[in-house]
């Protein structure tokens, strides 16, 4: 785990996807995902579908630090990525955080 000055910066998006568009959204997300993961500061990205809320997805991405994420967030690359996913969205929100600890599970 990085030290306090090198904490992983995590971004979590909650996306409400228009009815009946979930499978197409998942397909497009996979197709355009490298526009995020190819950024030198990106540590990885995950897409999850809610088990409790119909049409809700969560996207989690980890970054080496907040300034590098903010650099990406305002880039043309990010704008283009968002434009490709926007037709599927009916709402959403973003939460950012600093990872302060991690405990690996027995199965890892």
UniProtKB/TrEMBL annotation:
<dbReference type="Pfam" id="PF03992">
    <property type="entry name" value="ABM"/>
</dbReference>
<protein>
    <submittedName>
        <fullName>Antibiotic biosynthesis monooxygenase family protein</fullName>
    </submittedName>
</protein>
<dbReference type="GO" id="GO:0004497">
    <property type="term" value="F:monooxygenase activity"/>
</dbReference>
<dbReference type="InterPro" id="IPR007138">
    <property type="entry name" value="ABM_dom"/>
</dbReference>
<keyword id="KW-0560">Oxidoreductase</keyword>
<keyword id="KW-0503">Monooxygenase</keyword>
<feature type="domain" description="ABM">
    <location>
        <begin position="9"/>
        <end position="97"/>
    </location>
</feature>
<dbReference type="InterPro" id="IPR011008">
    <property type="entry name" value="Dimeric_a/b-barrel"/>
</dbReference>
């Amino acid at each position: 785990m990085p030290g306090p000055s090198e904490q992983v910066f995590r971004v979590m998006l909650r996306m409400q996807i228009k009815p009946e568009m979930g499978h197409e959204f998942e397909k497009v997300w996979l197709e355009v995902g490298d526009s995020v993961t190819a950024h030198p500061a990106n540590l990885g990205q995950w897409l999850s579908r809610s088990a409790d809320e119909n049409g809700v997805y969560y996207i989690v991405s980890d970054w080496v630090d907040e300034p590098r994420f903010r650099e990406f967030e305002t880039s043309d690359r990010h704008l283009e990525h968002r434009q490709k996913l926007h037709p599927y969205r009916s709402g959403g929100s973003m939460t950012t955080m600093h990872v302060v600890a991690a405990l690996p599970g027995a199965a890892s």
